[in-house]
Amino acid sequence: MSVDRVKARIMTVMRNLPPLPEVTRRLMAVMRDEEASAKDVAKVLSSDQALAGKVLKLANSSFYGVANEVTTISRAVVIMGFTGIRNMALSFGTMSALKNLDSGLDLAAFWGHAMANAAAVQVLAPHVNRRIDPEEAFLAGLMHDIGAYVLAAAVPDEYRQVLAADTGSLEDRERDATGFTHAQVGQGLLQFWELPQAFADAARYHHDIEKAASGEQPLTTLVALADILACIHGGSFEPPASEEHLGRLMQSAGLSAEALMIALTGMNQKIDEMRDFVQIAGAGPTRTVESVLEGSSCVVITTDDQRREWVSALLGHFGHRIFPMQAYFNQEGGSADVRLVLVDPQTLTREQVTRLMPFLESQSAVVCILTESGTRPPEHLQQHPSLNFIFTRDQLNAVLMMQPA
Length: 405
Fold this sequence. Notes:
Helix content is 60%, strand content 5%. By secondary structure, the protein is mainly α. It has 3 domains: 18-100, no CATH class; 101-289, Hypothetical protein af1432 (Orthogonal Bundle), CATH 1.10.3210.10; 297-400, Rossmann fold (3-Layer(aba) Sandwich). It has a 5-stranded parallel sheet with strand order 2-1-3-4-5, covered by helices on one side.
């Protein structure tokens, strides 16, 4: 199909989408007024009974975690704040507009990934070097891949083939098959809906490492970082970026490895809270991502403390336990229960690996080789499964299900 025909189909899908609800537009107008009060916002909300009901449900959900029941719109506005109300209305309006669009996507996986990104940006926002409103970051994260929804609806056959392929990046496959990427289409849709430019920029450039790591668009930087964490958490919609890209984004945002690990730790709770949000919005169920053999005992063999902390943090995020490396070598109590041993050969000499592998292969645990993105394990270790240092839950699950070599 020609690029012109694809473009025409994309524009047809956009034009046929319902506009954002009138009440959402009125809310945005009221909140642009510096003289507006909570009473003014509550009055607009109260004019739409369906939206008002959703606001009360959300205010009383685990998403906000209030101690006493919220029974009035005015109280909900106070609890959620102006930005929270605006972004909630935009989110609900967007989900409502897309709900009946026949995209052919796995919507549980799509919204699950969007939800994980939104949770990650909320957790990361307080730690970055540029002030970003966590509520705005949440909305940008929720909508960052919205172009995939439209692209899949415009050219469903081509997009199914894009998702089924496993070579190259998602954007490269989209561009080759349709002439457009979900990032470009997402930017177009958010501009078509006249949403803030920062949201459109985050949708457009969250895969563009030069833009995202330049420091010129702090919200884009944060969404790109959150996207890596969201891919790690679920890993079913698109693969995570490389370690190089992660490092550049962290530097641009002024984030330490410790802050990133804190974000990983906090994501699970946020995602649970957001499940209420997505269900109240009416977007349908999201995929519950679970780790197989959860609680498995794992050993990380490396001489690099930062790598050990990172891999241990990922394993802990997925619900697994870390067994001390030295205790495993000494076969102390609990060694026999170790399910997985992750080996970082880049920090070991060839002689150390040669002496180490016979011992590891004599144990009952699966031995997995850690590699940097785009590289293969050394030839003498290629009989074992491998994982990149940025690995997803799904990739780890696949390794855990293997039998020892």
